[in-house]
């Protein structure tokens, strides 16, 4: 018997030792994984592409033009416009200076045509279209060429000289996107750190989830680089920025849920590692379901034809899954190793009971219990009224209005728009088969709205034509000219900056029709499987669609009147819908999962709904604040499309957190009672309480 006890004690000690070694093993594995990912993560910026072709729809005319230009002699041309302007009118000396500088540009760089100046009618402005196919026309070479032209073209003494055009605009946009990585990461980390300090009220605890989120972000960069190399996934400044936002926002949400449950279990279980296992069993299934919903929604973007949207789907999914892996493995390991002291000064003592407090969510639950239908009607009317604001959204965002600041290319475009109000100032490019180039050139010259058409380069069976419209860029008249050209020039492709904008609008409209139903269907199916009901998933999906409409409506009320934006990004509706549906359903999962658990344990429907709100409301509120704050970081960026996207998502998350999920969904649950779970078994009557040891995992 003594030997048996000795062996049992030895075996128990060995098992205990192995359990203690598990956190160290997890930590070691993460160190190894990050070491492997480091070389790839550092190269992500090298494969980031922000050319127009990287954002354009894959099947559009303008995309084909850009691709064929790459195969022509010299590759894709860098098109610029050098703009000379004096408010009081150009002098003879100004014109001589302009001619000398343009000659200097032509002698230093190979140009497709000899530039000729086009004066404005009022005599204040002179523009020189300049295009070069200097060898090695990748992004670095393009930026170097634009920089060299700007060094030669200089003004002074009242003469302003700006270099604009598609090439210069691409360079300025690239500089903006390249400058986002550092500020975006630091600002996001700072915002998350501040909120975690306020939530946890601990000088140490906030560092742990923040550091883990940073490691997850680094891992996601390495995985994103791998996707680019192995599968050709497009990587842009916009998609990498959104990926970072998702890692910190979603990852911190998962951390809040896990830490909240871990704190609760520490009061009930003596050993931290056992308490962590209980916490993972409790909130792990809901977190997995939540991340699966977000990933499924984002992957629906693969059905989009727009390159920028389609590339954002895989990268956003990578961010969510890396955050999930870190928060369910690395974060628990570190918390177990640090023990209870990481919660100082509010250490959860074993056997202690937290102080009971009357919370906001208890009061909200009481209101929902007394007048559930009145709350539902009032909330629906409020969301509907807010959604009407979307009718006030400004029109399509033009290129010159896409920056919150004013880079040189935009200054040039504004000068041209004022000096040439009734004339085209940027070329329309036509790529036509060489054997029919003469006929296409004649047809183009006969097209209404075309004032000039010249034959350009030829190669690989294609010929480039350069056209100029009589109407200003991105006007209705120029759009009609481009559409006429596409109708008349059979077998040819019509591109250029204005054609690209047309294709962006058309493709976003097409993608919305395809992607939105896919997102709704995938999210609905996941919710049906998770909640074993049809009614509850329909309520959650309807609620999140209402939130999206209300958030867009608030955007319509502030974008023009308050922010001064002149247009709305064509992709705002689709991207904001995908993110708000995928992310918003998260909180519905946490709330409904707890509600279902309470019902399984015999609570009557109203009590189950109020208990779920009381126990999950605080964590949902904290998670919603963090997620909204991380997306709000985008509003400090210098690109209008990022500001608009960040604002709509942040406002939508706040509406979802403090009105819809916690108040309206609870009211709907109280009003519907057991019908909420139809046709599942919970809808058919009281259930026998499950044994204590067989409790179903909950969300928080």
Explain this structure.
This protein has 700 residues and is α+β, with helices and mostly antiparallel strands. Among the domains are: 101 residues, Alpha-Beta Plaits (2-Layer Sandwich); 204 residues, Multidrug efflux transporter AcrB transmembrane domain (Multidrug efflux transporter AcrB transmembrane fold, Up-down Bundle), CATH 1.20.1640.10; 68 residues, Alpha-Beta Plaits (2-Layer Sandwich), CATH 3.30.70. The chain is 63% helix and 7% strand. It contains 20 helices and eight strands. Strands 2-3-1-4 form a four-stranded antiparallel sheet. Helix 7 crosses helix 8. The N terminus and C terminus are likely disordered.
Looking at this protein, list some descriptive labels.
700 residues; alpha+beta; elongated; single chain; 20 helices; Alpha-Beta Plaits; four-stranded antiparallel beta sheet; disordered C terminus; Multidrug efflux transporter AcrB transmembrane fold; disordered N terminus
Low-confidence stretches: 1-8, 687-700
CATH domain topology of the domain at 358-392 and 517-685: Multidrug efflux transporter AcrB transmembrane fold
Average pLDDT, rounded to a whole number, is 85
- Form type: elongated
Q: What is the CA-CA span between the terminal residues?
A: 45 Å
Annotated CATH homologous superfamily of the domain at 358-392 and 517-685: Multidrug efflux transporter AcrB transmembrane domain
Query: What's the β-strand tally?
Result: 8
Order of neighbouring strands in the sheet with most strands: 2-3-1-4
Rounded to an integer, what's the Rg over CA atoms? 30 Å
Q: Helices and strands, in N-to-C order? A: HHEHEEHEHHHHHHHHHEHEEHEHHHHH
Q: Write the CATH architecture name of the domain at 358-392 and 517-685.
A: Up-down Bundle
Number of helices: 20
Overall CATH class of the domain at 358-392 and 517-685 = Mainly Alpha
Estimate the strand proportion. 5-15%
């Amino acid at each position: 018997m003594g030997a048996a006890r000795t062996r049992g004690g030895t075996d128990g000690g060995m098992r205990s030792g192995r359990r203690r070694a598990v956190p160290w093993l997890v930590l070691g594995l993460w160190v190894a994984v990050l070491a492997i990912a480091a070389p790839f993560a550092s190269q992500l910026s090298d494969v980031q592409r922000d050319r127009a072709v990287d954002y354009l729809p894959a099947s559009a005319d303008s995309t084909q033009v850009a691709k064929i230009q790459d195969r022509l002699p010299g590759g894709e041309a860098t098109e610029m416009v050098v703009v000379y302007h004096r408010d009081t009118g150009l002098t003879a000396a100004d014109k001589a200076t302009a001619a000398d500088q343009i000659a200097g540009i032509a002698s230093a760089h190979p140009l497709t045509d000899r530039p000729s100046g086009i004066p404005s009618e009022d005599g204040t402005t002179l523009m020189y279209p300049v295009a070069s196919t200097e060898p090695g026309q990748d992004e670095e070479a393009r930026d170097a060429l634009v920089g060299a032209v700007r060094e030669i073209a200089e003004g002074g003494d009242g003469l302003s000289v700006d270099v604009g055009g598609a090439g210069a605009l691409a360079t300025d946009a690239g500089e903006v996107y390249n400058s986002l990585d550092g500020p975006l990461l630091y600002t996001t980390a700072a915002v998350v750190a501040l909120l975690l300090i306020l939530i946890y009220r601990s000088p140490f605890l906030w560092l742990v989830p923040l550091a883990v989120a940073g490691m997850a972000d680094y891992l996601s960069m390495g995985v994103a680089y791998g996707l680019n190399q192995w599968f050709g996934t497009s990587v842009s400044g916009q998609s990498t920025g959104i990926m970072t936002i998702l890692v910190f926002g979603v990852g911190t949400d998962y951390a809040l849920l896990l830490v909240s449950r871990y704190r609760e279990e520490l009061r009930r279980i003596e050993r931290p590692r056992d308490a962590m296992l209980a916490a993972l069993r409790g909130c792990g299934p809901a977190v997995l379901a939540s991340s699966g919903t977000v990933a499924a929604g984002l992957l629906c973007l693969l059905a989009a034809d727009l390159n920028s949207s389609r590339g954002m789907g895989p990268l956003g999914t990578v961010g969510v899954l890396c955050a999930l892996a870190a928060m369910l493995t690395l974060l628990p390991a570190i918390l177990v190793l640090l023990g209870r002291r990481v919660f100082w000064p509010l250490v959860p003592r074993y056997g202690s009971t937290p102080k009971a407090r009357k919370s906001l969510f208890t009061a909200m639950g009481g209101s929902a219990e007394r007048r559930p239908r009145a709350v539902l009607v009032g909330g629906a009317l409020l969301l509907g009224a807010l959604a009407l604001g979307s009718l006030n959204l400004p029109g399509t965002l033009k290129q010159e209005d896409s920056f919150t600041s004013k880079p040189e290319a935009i200054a040039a475009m504004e000068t041209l728009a004022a000096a040439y109000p009734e004339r085209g100032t940027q070329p329309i490019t036509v790529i036509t088969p060489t054997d029919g180039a003469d006929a296409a050139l004649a047809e183009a010259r006969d097209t209404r709205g075309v004032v000039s058409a010249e034959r350009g380069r030829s190669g690989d069976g294609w010929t480039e034509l350069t056209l100029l419209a009589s109407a200003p860029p991105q006007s209705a008249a120029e759009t009609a000219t481009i559409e006429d050209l596409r109708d008349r020039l059979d077998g040819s492709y019509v591109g250029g900056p204005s054609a690209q904008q047309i294709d962006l609008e058309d493709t976003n409209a097409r993608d919305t029709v395809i992607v939105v139903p896919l997102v709704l269907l995938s999210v609905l199916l996941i919710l049906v499987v998770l909640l074993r009901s049809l009614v509850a998933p329909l309520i959650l999906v309807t609620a999140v669609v209402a939130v999206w409409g209300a958030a867009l409506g608030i955007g319509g009320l502030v974008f023009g009147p308050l922010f001064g934006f002149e247009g709305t990004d064509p992709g705002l509706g689709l991207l904001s819908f995908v993110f708000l549906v995928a992310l918003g359903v998260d909180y519905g999962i946490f709330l409904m999962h707890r509600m279902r658990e309470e019902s399984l344990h015999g609570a009557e429907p109203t009590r189950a709904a109020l208990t779920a709100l009381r126990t999950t409301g605080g964590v949902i509120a904290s998670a919603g604040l963090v997620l909204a704050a991380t997306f709000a970081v985008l509003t400090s960026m210098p690109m209008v499309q990022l500001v608009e996207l960040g604002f709509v998502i942040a406002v939508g998350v706040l509406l979802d957190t403090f009105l819809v999920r916690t108040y309206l969904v609870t009211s709907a649950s109280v009003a519907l009672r057991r019908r909420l779970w139809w046709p599942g078994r919970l809808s058919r009557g009281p259930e026998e309480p499950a044994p204590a040891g067989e409790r179903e995992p909950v969300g928080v």
